């Protein structure tokens, strides 16, 4: 995501791993420890109102999944409307990519303080509402910048949007842990990630059509038409805000009924912990940055690439540019389950990086049907997200997880901001072939990082590349009962 891929993935990795090792209750089954406030004979209707019962938690999960829909839908609005934004606002590609850079800049810092704000300042409920408001306000400012033909105002809108976007993902993960901290947490995170990818896919495939319809209705193109289309997209952010309000009410009600404290992230950022990070973690950071900077900036520029090189129609180009998200939606939960069952995280990451490099080489140096390369890219992107982010929990103690993930996302956003600007400049001056070579070089850096991680991990005992059965034996041998 850019950060859009990482926020949900990082929460899923750390919290699902801790949940599997912990003593969390199975929240999708009936919980015998909490007596139902409605009584045993409440019936199906009462079960919907009972926060200890499955029907009620399904309702909570529904709003939880749609909480980030608007943010993910609007994040790639520029990619879905690349041609229209560049033409209507009279931009170079470098200036166009500034829209992605301005989203990333605030998250270089906010990844460190988002969890703190949720824990210590706003609380999960008000924090979620506030971050949803930032997302909605940012999209409205972005649309107004197009309406009034002020590019600087569009950049301000993306900056405001970025303030809320990543922090909203943190809030979404915190709600998931608070409500589903048992065996189903991996499934819940997978469903949330699938819904996020659904939002990205919908954006890629319908925004161009909406622009065409508004253009026909107004019988003109230009900034006003673009602004109207972006304002329509803002309605999805309003949906996210409504979900945040409903979730807040449901969570407050459950807190009163079950007499429990408001959910916390449990992660406090401590910059002094950075000096104690092991070498393996720094290599994971390098892999993360080298990989994601070759994914999201490429998607941001992909539509025109497929039109120019493969002579696709705009509709076909939008569809193939979204194939990474289309595949990721169903593949992420499946691949996450596969990685959980097999272990071997380093090898899975290596496979993902090699497949991604292969896909970029095909796109750069062949005229093969790009559906092949983009499908490979979609599978490898999903696989890397499932295998890379959980490894952080293997190399740092639990009290440093918040700092480690915050630092990882901050470095990722810094890399995305810089590479987005560089990619736009390269495309303006050298063209798409040179840009693809540049992305291949970034992936090669990630590949070098994976190889080094493999050898460093082996020298230290091979914990990161243990099989699932190996991890089970390791945990049993280190438990107090085995001593």
UniProtKB/TrEMBL annotation:
It catalyses: L-lysyl-L-alanine(out) = L-lysyl-L-alanine(in); L-alpha-aminoacyl-L-lysine(out) = L-alpha-aminoacyl-L-lysine(in); L-alpha-aminoacyl-L-histidine(out) = L-alpha-aminoacyl-L-histidine(in); L-lysyl-L-alpha-amino acid(out) = L-lysyl-L-alpha-amino acid(in). The chain crosses the membrane at residues 54-73, 99-118, 130-152, 228-250, 281-307, 319-339, 346-365, 371-395, 407-427, 433-456. Signal peptide: none annotated. GO terms for molecular function: transmembrane transporter activity. Residues 57-460 form the Major facilitator superfamily (MFS) profile domain. PROSITE patterns: MFS (PS50850). The keyword Transit peptide does not apply. It holds the Pfam family MFS_1. It is a multi-pass membrane protein. It is found in: Lysosome membrane. Keywords: Lysosome, Membrane, Transmembrane, Transmembrane helix, Transport. Its main location: membrane. It comes from the Eukaryota. One of its GO terms (cellular component) is lysosomal membrane. SUPFAM superfamilies: MFS general substrate transporter (SSF103473). Homodimer. Interacts with lysosomal protein GLMP (via lumenal domain); the interaction starts while both proteins are still in the endoplasmic reticulum and is required for stabilization of MFSD1 in lysosomes but has no direct effect on its targeting to lysosomes or transporter activity. Lysosomal dipeptide uniporter that selectively exports lysine, arginine or histidine-containing dipeptides with a net positive charge from the lysosome lumen into the cytosol. Could play a role in a specific type of protein O-glycosylation indirectly regulating macrophages migration and tissue invasion. Also essential for liver homeostasis. PANTHER family: MAJOR FACILITATOR SUPERFAMILY DOMAIN-CONTAINING PROTEIN 1. Belongs to the major facilitator superfamily. This is Lysosomal dipeptide transporter MFSD1. The gene is MFSD1.
């Amino acid at each position: 995501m850019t950060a859009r891929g990482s926020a949900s993935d990082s929460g899923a990795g750390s919290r699902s791993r801790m949940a599997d090792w912990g003593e969390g209750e199975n929240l999708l089954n009936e919980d015998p420890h909490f007596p139902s406030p409605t009584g045993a004979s409440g019936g199906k209707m009462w079960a919907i109102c009972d926060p200890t019962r499955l029907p009620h938690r399904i309702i909570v999960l529904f709003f939880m999944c749609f909480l980030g829909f608007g943010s993910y839908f609007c994040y790639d609005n520029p990619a879905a409307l690349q041609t229209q934004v560049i033409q209507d606002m009279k931009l170079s590609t470098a200036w166009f990519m500034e829209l992605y850079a301005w989203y990333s800049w605030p998250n270089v810092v906010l990844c460190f303080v988002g969890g703190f704000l949720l824990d210590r300042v706003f609380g999960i409920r008000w924090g979620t509402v506030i971050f949803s408001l930032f997302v909605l306000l940012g999209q409205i400012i972005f649309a107004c910048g197009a309406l009034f033909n002020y590019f600087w105002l569009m950049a301000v809108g993306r900056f405001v949007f970025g303030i809320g976007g990543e922090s909203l993902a943190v809030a979404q993960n915190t709600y998931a842990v608070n409500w589903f901290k048992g065996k189903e947490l991996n499934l819940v995170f997978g469903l949330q990630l699938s819904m996020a990818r659904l939002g990205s896919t919908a954006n890629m495939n319908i925004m161009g059509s909406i622009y065409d319809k508004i253009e026909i209705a107004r019988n003109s193109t230009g900034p006003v038409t673009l602004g109207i289309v972006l304002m329509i997209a803002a309605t999805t952010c309003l949906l996210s805000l409504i979900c945040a309000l409903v979730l807040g009410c449901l969570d407050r009600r459950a807190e009163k009924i079950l007499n429990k404290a408001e959910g916390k992230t449990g992660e406090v950022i401590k910059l002094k912990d950075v000096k104690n990070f092991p070498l393996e973690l720094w290599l994971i950071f390098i892999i993360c940055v080298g990989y994601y900077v070759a994914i999201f900036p490429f998607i941001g520029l992909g539509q025109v690439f497929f039109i120019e090189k493969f002579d696709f129609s705009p509709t076909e180009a939008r569809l193939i540019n979204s194939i990474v998200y289309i595949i990721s939606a169903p593949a992420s939960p499946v691949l996450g389950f596969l990685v959980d069952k097999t272990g071997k995280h380093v090898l899975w990451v290596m496979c993902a990086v090699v497949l991604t490099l292969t896909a970029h080489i095909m796109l750069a140096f062949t005229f093969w049907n790009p559906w092949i390369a983009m499908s490979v890219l979609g599978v490898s992107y999903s696989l890397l997200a499932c295998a890379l982010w959980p490894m952080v929990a293997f190399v740092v103690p639990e009290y440093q997880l918040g700092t480690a993930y915050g630092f990882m996302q901050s470095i990722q956003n810094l890399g995305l901001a810089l590479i987005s600007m560089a990619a736009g400049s390269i495309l303006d001056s050298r063209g798409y072939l040179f840009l693809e070579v540049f992305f291949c070089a970034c992936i090669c850096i990630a590949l070098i990082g994976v190889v080094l991680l493999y050898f460093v991990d082996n020298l230290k005992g091979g914990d990161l590349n243990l099989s699932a059965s190996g991890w089970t034996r390791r945990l049993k041998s280190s438990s107090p009962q085995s001593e």
